[in-house]
Amino acid sequence: MNMELIENNLEKLDSVISCKIILGENDIVDEIHIVSNGKINPKQLSRNIQSILIATHNLNIDYKKISIAQITDKTLGKVENRLKIKGLSFNNEGSKASVKVALKNSADTYETSLMGINSVRNIERMLVDATLKNIEEALGYEDTFILEDVRTIPVSSEKAVVVVVMCMVEDMEQKLCGSCLVKTDYKEAIVKATLDAVNRYTTK
Fold it and tell me: Is the pTM of this model over 0.90?
């Protein structure tokens, strides 16, 4: 069984923020730990989880193995409107480079500019950091998301950007991963991959 795939599917359920599956002997599911935003009561959410597991993965799990913790405040609340790219610019200034990333939802626009060493790796970092700063501003967070890694990988005949972000939730680390196919603009793909990494935590 692909536990990562199962966890990802469960995290797509409404009210679920994160999921961790613990295996016991013979790789049998022993515990399922869920962090919920409290929008759905735990009993109903537990039934939803059981339904997904039996219908999609042919796993019949006793409800007693499902543990649900609720975050009812705004520690990791979700916003109604998905953030999208409004603008992206890059300036080559010799040994220095600057990036500006603007995101928008239905109500507001968030913009961050950063300048640093003009290297491929640092430009990638600045694009991700600027995107994360905008997301934090939109959510009213501080120092919540941190870049872990940016990679470009071959996918069939194309390339994809993979961004890994670490998220601090209630003093616990959660790693988020997002990806985007590179079409015409590599820098835009980095921003989109960053948004993809955090979207399940920031949107309904």
Answer: no
